[in-house]
Amino acid sequence: MAVDKNRIYLFDTTLRDGEQSPGISLSTREKLEIADQLAKLGIDVIEAGFPITSPGDFEAVSTIAKKVREPIIAALARVVDADIDRAAEAVKKAERPRIHTFVMSSDTQIKYQLRKTREEVLEMAVNAVKRAKSYVNDVEFSPMDASRADFDFLCKLIDVTIESGATVINVPDTVGYATPDEFGRLIAELIKAVPAMSEVIVSVHCHNDLGMSTANALAAIMNGAVQVEGTINGIGERAGNTALEEIAMIIDTRRQSLGKYTNIKTEEIAKTSRLVSSLTGYQVQFNKAIVGKNAFAHSSGIHQDGVLKDRSTFEIINPKRVGINESLLVLGKTSGRHAFRKHLESLGYQLSDDELEKAFERFKDLADKKAEITDIDIEAILADEVRTASDVYTLEYISVCSGTDTTPTATVRLRKNGEAIEKTSIGDGQVDAACKAIKRATGVKGELISYNVNSITEGLDAQGDVTIQLKINGKPVLGRGVSTDIIEASAKAYLNAINKALSS
Ligand code: KIV
Ligand code: ZN
Predict the structure, then answer these.
(1) Check: CATH 3.20.20.70 for 9-280?
(2) Looking at residue 333, what is its pLDDT?
(3) How far apart are CA 72 and CA 9, in angstroms?
């Protein structure tokens, strides 16, 4: 296959490796929402999940395969017949299906985890690729932990899997151990040692344990890799994966010297980042490159002065390039349903009548409390609607009473299958009282691991964005809620975590 060496393909695994982050558990609807946005962003391959792991994962992959047409839809599988069969079934309706199969390749993992020999690994990999190939033409093979594997064995493994029909060879730095210099050299040496690699797409998958995942992926690109795997906001196992928005913007910003290009519509980056953050519950660190709140904020006097005189003094990327526009006042109290629908359409949202009605009610309610409503507020409302779409319990009412000499007391009314449940509790503070009242109403016990509150936009009347992590039945689960009232946002986040635990 002829590959344009300057075109860099972006493979997004937010819905698979990203979802492996502790506490993240996305519904099919949430995954579809993210996949649709990834398609708008111009992602080339979406790894939609690992179908053998649960019926929910299978359902999400098959739904995305059916509905998201432009990108390649990939499903992950171990080198096991049942995994391959399930992955093939999940992607069978995709316009461009891919099966991604992997096996451990370092002696440490082969010996201690897999408990097999190198010969057995070779045989399993060959069988898996051949089986995958009997279902789809596009088969990706990953020798897991490649950066710590024996070089000659790695070459052999790659060679036999290409021989068996693999069209993409992905080289993972699974534990984030390699340095950019080593990883770049590994890719160059593999390409030299295995002539068949020039016939396939060479891909890399880097983890961020030492903070080098983006640098390692870039080093790989400069040494012949043409596909980079990663996630939005860099979420993923442990310290996460290469942040794809960083790779896209490095290639965009330094195109003159790198001479590479991608299919990414960079103006969609900020929106994609907010959506992933909102639905996963993982807030983005303030100083995160490209998508952090402070990525384009100039605070020192010298920097501000420079930027006012000429942006190029301290700004290497125009924020508009990643879709950050000045917070626009878009709609107000007097805007009607029609204007609201039109505006949503201009933002790329197509809602059913029912969804529109609910979102409009939320918008009107917000307009009563907040003077200026921006696109970011509207996105937050819509994400909240998606997040709560399949909730078992909904919060209908909350009332909290507190003061310097008063014991904080909260009453909540929840609804479950049409039935109202009202409970009251006291607590150490208003948030504690509200969460305890919810605990009573649902009967679900959760141990609080973390609590975070941020504001979505500027100003004292901004919506509060609360993330709560609970441990329920021994498993971490994240909940998120937004409201101009942070006690209500906290109650929603707490209930969202409970709903997620109940539906997973
Ligand atoms: O980190 C890793 O090696 C993986 C493989 C499944 C590609 O996620
Ligand atoms: Zn990984």
Answers:
(1) yes
(2) 78
(3) 11
3-state secondary structure of 440: helix
Distance CA 79, CA 218 (A): 29
Residues with CB under 5 A from ligand 2 (ion): 17
Instruction: Classify 177 as helix, strand or coil.
Output: coil
**Angstrom distance (rounded) from CA 115 to CA 341:** 58
- CA–CA distance, 394 with 465 (Å, rounded to integer): 18
At 337, the pLDDT band (50, 70, 90 cuts) reads confident
Ligand 1 atom closest to Cα of residue 76: 6
Domain spans, the chain: 9-280, 301-387, 392-503
> E strand or H helix at 120, and its extent?
helix 118-133
Angle, alpha carbons 456-413-351 (nearest 5°) = 50
State the pLDDT at residue 389: 84
Domain 392-503 grouped into CATH 3.40.1210.10: no
> What ligand is nearest to the CA atom of residue 101?
1
Round to whole Å and give the CA distance between 362 and 357. Answer: 9
Give the orientation angle of helix 180-193 with respect to helix 151-163, to 10 degrees: 50
141 lines ligand 1 (CB under 6 A): no
Measured at the alpha carbon of residue 200, what is the angle toward residues 194 and 203, in degrees to the nearest 5? 90
The verdict on the CB of residue 50 being under 6 Å from ligand 1 is no
Which ligand is closest to the CA of 100, given by its number?
1
Q: Which of 11, 174, 229 to mutate to test the pocket of ligand 1 (most atoms within 8 A of CB)?
A: 174
Buried/exposed code over 72-85 (b: 16+ C-beta within 10 A; e: otherwise): bbbbbbbbbeebbb
Instruction: Give the pLDDT of residue 357.
Output: 92
Quick one: 139 exposed, middle or buried, by C-beta within 10 A (0-12, 13-18, 19+)? buried
Are 9-280 and 392-503 the same fold in CATH? no
